User: Fold this.
Amino acid sequence: MLYERLYCSSVLEYPSTKNLLGYKNPLDQTKAQMNETTQITKDRDTMVDTVQTTAAIHTKPPRGASVFVGLSGGVDSALAAALLVEAGYQVTGIYMKNWSQDLPGFVCPWANDLADAERIAYKLHIKLDVWDCEKDYKSTVVDYLLDAYAKGLTPNPDVMCNQTIKFGTFLDRALAGGADYIATGHYAQLSTTTPSIQQTNSKHTTDKQQAYTEQTSGIQQIDQELPKLLRAADEHKDQTYFLWRVSAERLQHVLFPIGAIASKQEVRRLCAERKLGIEHKPDSDGICFIGPVGLRTFLLQTLSRKVGPIVEWETGKILGQHDGAFLFTVGQRKGLDLGGGPARYVVATDVVQNCVFVSAYKHCDALVLKDLTLADCCWVAGMPPAPGTYELRHRHTGALAAAKLEILDNTHAKIHYLADHEAVAPGQSVVVYDQTCCLGGGIVQPRPLPQRLCAIC
Amino acid sequence: MAQSAHRQAAHMSASHVHATRMHTAHTQETHTKVPCTPAFHMGEKPSALAPSEQSHRSVYLDYAAATPLDPKVLEAMLPYFSEVFYNPSAAYQPARAVRQTIDQARARIGALCGARGQNIIFTAGATEANNLALTSVTGKVFVDAAEHDSILAAARVRDHYIGSVCADGMLHIEELVGILSELELISVELANGEVGTIQPIREISQLVSHERMRRLAAGDMRPLYLHTDASQAAGFLSVQLSSLGVDMMTLSAAKMYGPKQMGLLWVREGIQLHPLILGGGQEAGLRSGTENVPGIMGFATAFEIAVAARKSEAARLCALTRRIRKTLATDTRLGAVFLGPNSESQRLPHLVSVAFSGLEARRLLIGLEDRGVFVATGSACAASKMQVSHVLRALGVDDAVARGSIRITLGRQTTEQDVTYALDALREVVLLERA
Assistant:
């Protein structure tokens, strides 16, 4: 196993003082701790301490290990690279060229970003390679986005980018190119975990877990040393919402050097301290390949406008016209152009009939959820968690909502909210957390229209 | 008053929100106790970050990209932004005076290259002038592969032939001779801005006049014109039209300590151009739009200064570039390879194109910038797209060499001390990368 090989070879290659004084193979240490932890029960704080120790082992690969770090030219990845260099790793910077297409009114900043990445690499005395990932990016992220919108969904392209590009293509290519690990500037943390540790979580969980394991005995047991995906120290920057489709199997080759830093402000300060010269670079928000021109402009490059009715949800009355149901998303208020009257919200869209349904009532039944079906579920650990009550996130750094999770099968789940929840656009990610641990999630499925409205369109 | 109170309130509520956020973050952290990664931000002092911010000296060595406006040029331009703002097309006396000043400027420029002022068309930069020149014919256009992007791009949308160049950037005359009978226009720059090659324009013009005679005798009515882009050359070489024997010539103010977005095309009488910009019919209908009066005034003054200083400045800069070449060539550890012609008479005196094979020029640029030295890699446009410059490719330079190539161009402000400093910096940066 690669993980094992790494640690063993590191002991051979880097005989530290610890080793001379009877240094133990870290793997053996981990195993020893696991044996200890199985004996500890109930006390949550003790559990967290254990996780902390094991996490330190996971995130502290041997000095001199080869780490390929994705340098975007931004502050976060720059600091990640700097910290890795300082920690003694053999660091190679990689600029992933994912997209370089300009849009009307938006010049894609990739050349500037590359220049910044180059500057950072130079200052850190590391090599920078440019990897052209445009083909993969186009086929898995951009086409996915267009396809999803065409189907009336509201996708999260960042989630796809992480799964297929950063922790897909990039990871594969890095490992093939001699990397022991990859690192990114994501705000997330990793710790090693095992089913046995999870069982110590609480008596309650243990029962659920065991009951579920019995039910699904066909599912393969997960590897003992796979890491757990944990939220970042800075709750306001935490990016685990975008990482839910990355498996623990992949995460075991990953480092998140800045996940433990308290705030973005601190990240900027640490960058400034190191004179990386980019500490004032503004955060890039939104979908990177669309920039400030907006999604509408981007979608209309490929998809055609098509006139259809705007229908009042309660009465079925046609209130006006729209120019393509795929351009609208649940909860949207802008762009309806109904010429006065109360503010109206999109409560549902139907791209097949090309209808947009709106309501003036925030508490309209279509905007309130009691339950929700998720498809295309992915679980970080490689198998679904035990059914039970978890916290859910419906958008990046959004509020956590408590809900019961019902596992339907390997890729489907149903959630039952403990309190009514506001509607979520189909196609969006719902991410499941157990405390700070990101377990995975699923994609919100469209709900069928009520019979009375089917006739209208 | 009310406004400032409002602003203050907004500010206070913002800081309140911030405090709340901080508080939440704090409680979250103590509650969950997520593991920290001590190895990452408590390491030893960053040793890899050494070379930056050493000196505050700044040495600009990219004069082929842009030149600073000469103070006298600025002085000549200033009145035309404010006091003398009139539209030269207007009918009243002050405006007609501006029209006269423009025509005088046109004549002043003409006098410096042996042209009649009325044959000069002012444009917004050399790129536009080059584009306009290529509208003169409908038949086949010959350009060489080392031309500026504006010539290559404008040629590609027409019937065209791209001639190859030698390893030193010199056009293959025999290739031109071979295709001459098919051509209606030849566009070859007077000197190349990337590697400095001075093209044999007089020789080409002789070929052109022979071919014209042949066509005349044979009753072949197709035209044959010769255009030269002298933007990069005008500060160092004579641009006397009678001696060059061309039919059209492009000049740029931006390369001779004049304003940017100011160029011109000189056109021999009888050549029919087709305007790219339509409108009020200014510049004899070939370039509509109210004249850039300050720009034109700046152009005339800049050209006058450049022509007066040409000889001495060329000799001074030639001595400096000779020193740069010698120093870089002597230190064999650097592995410097010079691009462009070897002979001083065949290249621009202020330009050194040098490659450090196996190194990344982009990294050298960053190292130099850290030391306050500004140079170019390839041509500016090509560099921003991170591609090997088309000129180096045309010269047949190996990619590994091309990627490590930088262009150093000196100018009026460059001193002996600047060169010494820049050479030390360059040596240091190259050796650091070679290590």
User: Anything to note?
Assistant: Chain A has a mean pLDDT of 81. Residues 157-176 of chain A form the longest helix (20 residues). Chain A touches chain B through 49 residues (CB under 8 Å).
